[in-house]
Amino acid sequence: MAGLSAAWSGLRLSLGSSELRRTYVQLVAALFVVAGLLDAAGIWAVLHYTPIDGDTSWWATIALWIARIAGIVLVLLVAPLLSLAAVNLVFPFLGERVFIAAMRVVDPARAAQLEAMPGTPMASAVVVAVARLMLFFGMSVLAFLMSLIPVVGQVLGPVFQGYLSARGLAWELLDPYLDKLQLDMGQQRKFVATHRAALVGFGLPLIFLMAIPLVGPLMFGLAQGAVAKLVVEVIEAPPAS
Question: What is the DSSP letter of 237?
């Protein structure tokens, strides 16, 4: 619930800040193109590999339509995270600019501290980003295989993918923060395990908003700004006495 609260309050912060609105335009433009291409390619692949013609029996037609719906849901849930990971990999400075701008609004002193940190060397950051992407891709393949299980799979697959995408989106949005802390892949996985509930709570509403074709990518920059709230109010918040 703390993560969920941080997501909504962070979105309001991003929408209400003129500095953030100016800063996130470039990030959104890049993500809009990548997410659109991934959505189109993924949906085409689902329809192409589940063909329905005049010779298809009625029961097979029903099964194929169920598989199509589950497949399209999986594509829409995966595309936002993959596009964000791709843009962060190629243009890491875009997400960092939005994150630091949001931190200046939430906690100026902490923003100055983070901005002064050198961060992870480029080569190491790329290795971590690729490893994180491959981990998500591998788990998404597992979710797809789960969706092929008769009857229950069409529910279990999308639910598991929703969990993976929510956690993964929060993890990816935290990339500028984790980069400043110079955490390697092993340390990042421990970090995610420690804060798993908050990350899933934070990412869950955002992943469904971002899964909306065409409209969803417009939320990326706002979500990157919202993660500053998650850092200050949840991750770095002093433990309750």
Answer: S
Question: CA 223, CA 229: separation in Å to the nearest integer?
Answer: 10
Closest CA to 152 of 66, 50, 52: 66
pTM to 2 decimal places: 0.74
d(CA 85, CA 106): 25
**Dist. CA 122–CA 125, nearest whole Å:** 5
In 10 A of CB 131, how many CB atoms?
A: 15
Nearest to 214 by CA among 32, 15, 63, 29: 32
As a whole number of angstroms, the distance between CA 123 and CA 93 comes to: 14
Helices (H), 49-121: 58-90, 92-106, 108-116
Domain boundaries, the chain: 2-235
Q: What distance in Å separates the CA atoms of residue 141 and residue 95, rounded to the nearest whole number?
A: 27
Average pLDDT, the chain: 79
Q: Which two tokens stand for residue 207?
A: 């992943």
Q: Contact, 165 vs 198, CB < 8 A?
A: no
Instruction: Enter the DSSP assignment of 219.
Output: G
C-alpha 7/C-alpha 12 separation (Å) is: 9
Q: Say what the pLDDT of residue 21 is.
A: 59
For residue range 95-118, what is the model confidence (pLDDT) as tens digits? 777 788 888 878 889 889 998 988
